[in-house]
Specification:
- With 251 residues, this protein is an all-alpha fold.
- It has 15 helices and two strands.
- The chain has two domains: 106 residues, Alpha-helical ferredoxin (Fumarate Reductase Iron-sulfur Protein, Chain B, domain 2, Orthogonal Bundle); 114 residues, no CATH class.
- Helices cover 57% and strands 2% of the residues.
- Strands 1-2 form a two-stranded antiparallel ribbon.
- Helix 14 packs antiparallel against helix 15.
């Protein structure tokens, strides 16, 4: 009887996972398992994780590891050992320190890609509407609006101090004149705001359809409901304009 009672108490303890020195709300075991299953079932997961020799080369060559509480080796170890609590903890802050340079992938003797694993973790964090994802993406609302509504992030002639007055004092050091960029970027891809941000109605409607079908808009709604509402309004207006244009062609 005593053993049965102890077993029952242990099961209750495993049902909720929490840091004893943190005020954060305990995470149900079922939620941790759901998050890990989304990570493990990602199409790229088996291509990014093969094992770990624990050699530390990835962390030794990682730029972010020198400045943040971040270790590519820790990410690989957490996933390889299926440490559900550790994975969830890393998704609260550490995964957002990765600069996605993929030096780790180039140096790993086991052909792991910690940077690729971080991308998967970020996608799952967004899918589950984690606060860390909301905080990380909040400064990029304007960029997300452009990417989703036009398919373009920014144009070369936008990279000027006047274009980003809200990005802090260091933006005054940014200057990317077109004559210099033309030497490095192929002319066919060197669009400006006059061309890159002008997307015909059919393309806009096709973009919106893709975002709907792939679940991008659903994920965006969990992260930034206000931005979601703006994009839906914009795209519905473009759909109406496109339908009006089609009706005119029939006439």
């Amino acid at each position: 009887m005593a053993n049965a009672m102890l077993h029952g108490d242990a099961a209750k303890g495993r049902a909720m996972i929490a840091d004893p020195v943190s005020a954060a709300t305990p995470v149900p075991q079922a939620k941790l398992e759901e998050i890990f299953e989304d990570i493990r079932s990602h199409a790229l997961y088996d291509h990014e994780l093969y094992g770990c020799l624990n050699c530390g080369i990835c962390t030794a060559t990682c730029p972010s590891a020198h400045y943040y509480d971040y270790s590519p080796r820790e990410i690989v170890q957490l996933l390889w050992t299926e440490n559900l609590e550790g994975i969830h903890d890393a998704m609260q802050e550490k995964i957002w320190a990765c600069a996605q340079c993929y030096t780790c992938a180039a140096r790993c003797p086991f052909h792991n890609s910690p940077g690729g694993l971080v991308m998967i973790l970020r996608e799952v964090a967004i899918k589950h509407g984690m606060q860390s994802a909301k905080d990380a993406l909040r400064p990029f609302t304007r960029v997300l609006l452009k990417v989703i509504s036009t398919g373009n992030q920014l144009a070369p002639n936008m990279i000027t101090p006047d274009a980003f007055p809200d990005w802090g004092p260091n933006i005054c050091k940014v200057d990317a004149p077109l004559d210099v960029l033309r030497k490095a970027i192929p002319v066919p891809t060197l669009h400006t705001m006059d061309t890159a941000w002008v997307v015909n109605l059919k393309t806009s409607v096709e973009l919106y359809t893709i975002w709907e079908a792939t679940g991008v808009l659903d994920q965006l709604e969990t992260i930034d409901e206000n931005l979601f509402d703006v994009i839906v309004d914009v795209m519905e207006e473009k759909r109406e304009e496109y339908q009006d244009w089609l009706d005119e062609q029939d006439d």
